[in-house]
């Protein structure tokens, strides 16, 4: 981009001063940092707007096919810094602000992190939008404008406290309300049939409705003038109806509609990988899907007259089963509003919809009780029934007399609507998110579907955007990389492999490790400020940050810390490299055992950090409120990345990739994308341990294993487990961690003992941790391996993932935007 930066800087300053004046009646001298943030964001939005308009003109001109990425969650993180980078204006704006007496980083930190997602699934959606815009593909993100996003986590007395996230409180400067696209969404009532002399029409009557009103947030492509939209829907009462009902004296109904609108978008469900089965959740799903699908069809019909070719201009990618009602909603619109025959409508629908599976864990599978589903969505339920009836006929044809197949594959069975089955049957593509995961889908979980419709199944290994997780999150390393190999890596991460030639160069090793050290100092300061704990930036920063879930095995990590501490207590002179174990994790508000695990981590931290006798050789830190903003800083500072899920349970993981990009070494199981990471960097450059997914699946099929054998035969493990129930870490209440102890050893609960094979893998894990200790002493080996990890991360860009989606599933054309 060729811009005259002096003019630019002056213009920018003028814009900021103007925004301060008209928004806050303030001058630069008396503006607060928060006001400055708003004024700067509006000035940046101004730079985005022309590109945004031009992009949509270009869509229209080229009559471009569009992907609608439908997702209940978009965990975008802050926008200001990323937008500035994408506009390639970072240095100018930094200077302009400095000349006005402000620091860009401080202003960026004023932004409330839009946390409209839980964890990996929502973050993936955000990375995909970034890549789509940067690669120049026409795309909409479709989601919900939750008034309260993911809760903020506070730690009090070691316990997690959930605090509402009021991200909209001061207004969100980047969004634009689009009332002209408001759409009515109907719930409940009953379906009437009306005969018009030719055919029956199905009409929903006696329903309640809400008005879906979209807000668009710009998604700025890097350096290419492309600006796509994240469209999130707000709910409002349908005013005209409201008044009419009121006139009729139906006050009750008017108030009901008002409340329905208020509650529907009130809050994001804070469950990650877990189905809650709440009516409000199904309402949320249909709400944003109905609005998005209605709008997509309407937009198509503005410029096309043949609805039969809808799929040539639109594709719906369903992020997990949460948006699966899209299949039935598109059918409804085609049948009831466009008056198509079933077969025509079905052909269009199944050429438009595609489904991404994110988990094989049974507790995450969405199954709605028929009673609830049909009461809330009576017409949609009729359509699902007919889809099911026809699908069961197909099963019978393919497997005559095999009732077992029907039991296993039907969409409606045993009083429930199985959303994954509807998603598979209604889609032309079904993809897993890492090679291992897709293989497990094909050979185990979805075997019957794979055998019946193999052509639908494909793999798209997840990725992450290097623009956020290296260029923005780790500026020191980003400019070092650019110095060495040029800047093409920013839009094509495959170039990063060129770094490999520097891996053995001692000067480069020193530079690389010095950057890591600077980033560790930055994180150590943050820890000092937020936790009051002194950590030594020369110690190994060993990090596990991700949602708290039993399958992710934070418990195994902290049990190992307890084990190491026992060794140090027995032998205070034990020669170990000082290590800082860093955790960050939110637990779902209702997930008792996960919350108790957070308490355990903090209890262990309290004891260890305050024990002078171990000379600070180990420290334990729990970072409050893990979210995208602090994540960026944490990845940059990590030496060791803990990716220790029970093999087969983590579909892909994306945190693993962010660490690798930032030069951390992985300790991990052969699970999810770790398998492909090992392939890229070489298993000798990771610390791999534990049972394989085949072994785990075999043990599971045999009903588990007996952890008591390990308890009885391994004294050191037994000692750690006894410390859970003898008050070592909870002297006031020795019973506090009894549930965790029981989960590992007893079958008093309905689960198998040690469902996630923690004790089974423990020795192998401890041995891998010990290999890290030994390896870190060899500074050259470590530096070389860290550089090689960064250099081998090219595959894990979401740009690569998106190109594969486009090639195999979406078939989009790139657009070019000239200003
Ligand atoms: C990447 C990311 C995740 C996903 O992490 P995993 O280790 O893959 O589970 C969750 N939360 C945030 C904030 C992230 O940035």
Automatic annotation (TrEMBL):
Q: Would the keyword Glycosyltransferase turn up in this protein's UniProt record? A: yes
Record carries keyword Transferase: yes
> What is catalysed by this protein?
[(1->4)-alpha-D-glucosyl](n) + phosphate = [(1->4)-alpha-D-glucosyl](n-1) + alpha-D-glucose 1-phosphate
Keyword annotations from UniProtKB, A to Z? Carbohydrate metabolism, Glycosyltransferase, Pyridoxal phosphate, Transferase
Cofactor dependence: pyridoxal 5'-phosphate
EC number(s) per entry: 2.4.1.1
Matching entries from InterPro entries are given as: Glycg_phsphrylas (IPR011833), Glyco_trans_35 (IPR000811), Pyridoxal_P_attach_site (IPR035090)
- Functional description taken from the UniProt entry: Phosphorylase is an important allosteric enzyme in carbohydrate metabolism. Enzymes from different sources differ in their regulatory mechanisms and in their natural substrates. However, all known phosphorylases share catalytic and structural properties.
Indicate the family of this protein: Belongs to the glycogen phosphorylase family.
| PANTHER family documented for this protein | GLYCOGEN PHOSPHORYLASE (PTHR11468), GLYCOGEN PHOSPHORYLASE, LIVER FORM (PTHR11468:SF3)
What's the protein name?
Alpha-1,4 glucan phosphorylase
Organism of this sequence:
Alitiscatomonas aceti
